[in-house]
Structures are given as structure tokens and as C-alpha cells.
Design goal:
CATH topology of one domain: Pseudouridine synthase
Number of helices: 8
Radius of gyration: 21 Å
Structural class: alpha+beta
Helix content: 25-40%
CATH class of one domain: Alpha Beta
CATH superfamily of one domain: TruD, catalytic domain
């Protein structure tokens, strides 16, 4: 993985550790909608709390216990294993309801089950609320100063380390799949590795924008994304659009490379093309990834809603929300810098 620059590099490291215990890292999904509860609906939404267990592990165990295919269970977003998390899983109601009372898994509780007419799909959530504790903080003032800057300018929308696998080599595996024409025996791994490679390239572009001082700047030719609708347009008047960037109405975006991605123009296109050239990758190669690498644009930054922050001794306690698809670990990295 690329070494990523800090947005808050001018602020000293606060130091500290997080995830000392799962209870130091609590994540609650903010659903895009709630299930209706109509009895004739075929999908069952399960509000699940888990500790030290991955989303996939719960899905596998539930499918095995209730006797249906794992592919028939869905979720809006993956949640961290090393945390306390609450989220919806969606499964076939007629398969799950008769056996739900006897389902048991260490670290997992099904808090409620409600039917809904449609299947839950990936990305069907507004965001996530985090309640975190950072222990052994050395410089609380630096932590608070970094938080102020991140609240004002937004959190760099880097993909977090968990995107790249335990050994950090998922992106390289994705690159090799592209170079081999998109072929890979395991479909799940293919999607995972290709996505990791797209994420790595996005991180490199974002890192270059931070280093170049254009992270929160509207550049001529930028693809600007509206907050929060996600609508896109090309920046033709930077001096006009910069006012909207400053108000967090729009944000510059970076590439998730693929044939359906909207291309920037001018110097922005040159920067993104340079990242590909350094990799020895042609844009057309992403067509080999099929549905896994269609491409899109991702905001370079995301707004953070800081609901509470306090220092007790050397422990920093935070409660904040982030939009779907962004990483709390990226925010914490900006504070700790270790």
C-alpha cells in the first residue's frame, strides 16, 4: 500500500491507541430506510449486534443454521470485526423465522426481526455513527486541533487499511488479475481484489491532491460531486465553484477507474492519467473486470458530524457520524499519526 500523507500534517501527533477492546470501538449503522413490518413481505431484516465477529461470519452461520444459500443473505455495508457493531442483515423470511429462536452464535445477538418488501442491497444506508475511545493520548490539545481542521475541511476519503487485506497485498493481486485479462477462479476473491486495486489507485490520486495543496480546491476540469446527492458536473468556473466547495455543497472527486467513470479534463485528467502511467496500466484494461470494475467517482473528502468530544485523563472519547463508505480509522489516523 502507498504511504499516505496527512491532511493535518502541520499539527503534532496526539498519540494514543484505539481498539484496545471491542467496546472502545462502537459502530451503529444509520439505515437509508426502516423495514415496514408487513406480514406478506418475503424479506426479513435482522437488526444484529456483534462483538469480535465479521459480518460475513454471521451471514455464514445464519445461512447454515436456517438451511439456505449464503448468497441469499445481504447487508448494506461490512462492519469491522474488532468492534461492537449494530447493523441490518436481510434474509428469506420463510427460511429464517421458523429457526430464528434457536440461532445462537458467540458474540452475536439478534435484537429484532422485521419483514420488508424489498431485499436490502449494498450501499442502502445513510452512514454510520461511531462511539470511540482513544487511550494513552499524549497530546490532547493536538487531537482537538486536528478534529477542528477535519470538521472544517472534511475528512480525507481514503480507503482504510482493512480494504487491502490482512497482508496488505489485495491491491497487487487485483492488478495481476487485470493484467491477466480479468480471469480469476474464485468470483468472490476476484471482486475483492479488483476493488482493492481500484481503491489503491484512488488513494494515490487523493494523496497527490493533499501533497499538492488542492485537496479542498475546485480545479478547472474537476469532476465535482454534489453533497449529499452525488450528482456530478465538470468544473468550468473554479472561482465560482470554490465558494460551493468552501460551504461543503460540493466536493472534488477522485477516480474509481472503469469504463463508466466520468472523466475530468485538463490538469486533473493529467494527474489521474499519470497515476495510471506509473502503474503501467491502460484505462481500457478495466473493461476486463466486467461488472466488478465499471468505475465511478468518489469524493476526495467527506463531512464529519462531531456530536461529542471530551478528554478524561489520557482517554479521548468521541461520538461522530460519517457518510456511508468512509472510514473512522482514517479520521483517527489523522489524530494519532503513529
Amino acid at each position: 500500500m502507498t504511504s499516505l500523507p496527512f491532511l493535518t500534517s502541520a499539527i503534532p501527533a496526539a498519540g494514543g491507541v484505539f481498539k484496545a477492546t471491542p467496546d472502545d470501538f462502537i459502530v451503529e449503522e444509520l439505515p437509508a430506510y426502516e423495514p415496514t413490518g408487513e406480514r406478506d413481505c418475503e424479506h426479513l431484516f435482522l437488526w444484529v449486534e456483534k462483538r469480535g465477529v465479521s459480518t460475513q461470519d454471521v451471514a455464514k452461520a445464519l445461512a447454515r443454521h436456517c438451511g439456505f444459500y449464503e448468497k441469499d443473505i445481504s447487508w448494506a455495508g461490512l462492519k469491522d470485526r474488532h468492534a461492537v457493531t449494530r447493523q441490518y442483515l436481510c434474509a428469506p423470511a420463510r427460511k429464517v423465522e421458523p429457526k430464528l429462536e434457536t440461532f445462537s452464535m458467540p458474540g452475536v445477538q439478534v435484537l429484532r426481526a422485521t419483514r420488508h418488501r424489498n431485499k436490502l442491497k449494498s450501499g442502502h444506508l445513510h452512514g454510520n455513527r461511531f462511539e470511540l475511545k482513544v487511550r494513552d493520548v499524549k497530546d490532547p490539545g493536538a487531537a482537538l486541533a486536528a478534529l477542528e481542521q477535519l470538521t472544517r475541511l472534511g475528512v480525507p476519503n481514503y480507503f482504510g487499511e482493512q480494504r487491502f487485506g490482512f497482508g496488505g497485498d489485495n491491491a497487487e493481486k487485483g492488478k495481476q488479475i487485470l493484467l491477466a485479462g480479468g480471469r480469476h477462479a474464485d468470483r468472490f476473491e476476484r471482486k475483492l481484489f479488483l476493488s482493492a486495486y481500484q481503491s489503491e489507485l484512488f488513494n494515490r490520486v487523493l494523496a497527490a491532491r493533499i501533497t499538492g495543496g488542492t485537496y479542498a480546491k475546485a480545479l478547472l476540469g474537476d469532476v465535482l460531486k454534489k453533497v449529499p446527492t452525488g450528482g456530478e458536473f465538470i468544473c468550468a468556473e473554479p472561482e465560482v465553484d470554490q465558494l460551493r466547495v468552501d460551504k461543503f455543497e460540493v466536493s472534488p472527486s477522485g477516480p474509481i477507474f472503469g469504463p463508466e467513470m466520468r472523466l475530468p479534463t485538463g490538469e486533473v485528467d493529467a494527474l489521474e492519467s499519470r497515476v495510471l502511467a506509473e502503474e503501467g496500466i491502460e484505462r481500457s484494461l478495466f473493461e476486463k473486470g466486467g461488472g466488478e470494475t465499471l468505475g465511478t467517482r468518489r469524493p476526495l473528502r467527506v463531512p464529519v458530524t462531531l456530536e461529542d468530544s471530551k478528554i478524561e485523563g489520557d482517554v479521548l472519547q468521541l461520538r461522530f457520524t460519517l457518510p456511508a463508505g468512509s472510514y473512522a480509522t482514517v479520521l483517527l489516523r489523522e489524530l494519532i499519526k503513529e
